[in-house]
Amino acid sequence: MRIKNIVFDLGGVVLDLDQGKTLRSFKRLGSDLDEINHEDSVFIDYELGKITEEFFLQSLFTYLKGNASREQIKDAWNAMLLDLPKERIELLRQLKKHYRLFLLSNTNHTHIEEVYRAHGKEIFNELFEIQFLSFEMGSRKPMLACYEQVLVQAEIKANETVFIDDSRINIKGAAQAGLHTILAHEPIGKWLGAELKKLEVAPQN
């Protein structure tokens, strides 16, 4: 067995993420987003591309009881999105010399547009063959169909592919789809090479 492909999560793995910043931003606007059920259909539907950005922002406006502007709400929602360090970009460039790289993210139109604005869409196009974004796919992790869609569209085999995510639930879903998995305990760094070496093990005779 040899790993040929790596599928990366975006937030918390490739991109630095602090969801607490969004929660604190909404508190400053007068609403405790932490008390809202994040499995509420509006959040799930937005990640699945079932509702528009305008509908989503209007829903948050309703949570805030109309006490914030559209731009304040959008800025607060994007506050969690942080840095893409140069050394991480270089690591991915080095990995690309040996593996096919893909991105798989539960995300939404607002967040991905901010990521592209802040860091440049071209860098993601350079690093990843395909960017699988839940709101474009109509499917999200940890749904089995989400991982299967990646395998089919990328034309890759599960047993030759490793999936890296910072969520245990998403890791479990990927494992059920037959992918090798690595649970990220922090954004990718020195530990990744060691984890990949563990997987590059020839099958026993």
Task: Give me some keywords for this one.
alpha/beta; Rossmann fold; DNA polymerase, domain 1; 49% helix; 11 helices; 2 domains
3D architecture notes:
Helix 1 packs antiparallel against helix 4 and helix 6 (109-119) packs across helix 7 (121-127). It contains 11 helices and 5 strands, in the order βαααααβααβααβαβα. The mean pLDDT is 91. The chain has a 5-stranded parallel β-sheet, with helices on both faces. By secondary structure, the chain is of the alpha/beta class. The protein has helices at 19-28, 41-47, 53-63, 70-78, 86-96, 109-119, 121-127, 134-137, 144-154, 168-176, 190-199; strands at 5-8, 100-105, 130-133, 161-165, 180-183. Helix 10 (168-176) links the parallel strand 4 (161-165) and strand 5 (180-183). The chain folds into 2 domains: 5-16 and 83-199, HAD superfamily/HAD-like (Rossmann fold, 3-Layer(aba) Sandwich), CATH 3.40.50; 19-78, Orthogonal Bundle (DNA polymerase, domain 1).
Number of strands: 5
Number of domains: 2
Low-confidence stretches: none
Order of helices and strands: EHHHHHEHHEHHEHEH
Indicate the percent of residues in helices: 40-55%
Structural class: alpha/beta
Largest sheet: 5 strands, parallel
Top-tier CATH class of the largest domain: Alpha Beta
Across the major sheet, the strand order is 3-2-1-4-5
- How many helices in DSSP terms? 11
CATH architecture of the largest domain: 3-Layer(aba) Sandwich
Report mean pLDDT, rounded to a whole number.
Answer: 91
- Approximately how much beta-strand content do the residues carry? 5-15%
Determine Rg (CA atoms, Å). Answer: 18 Å
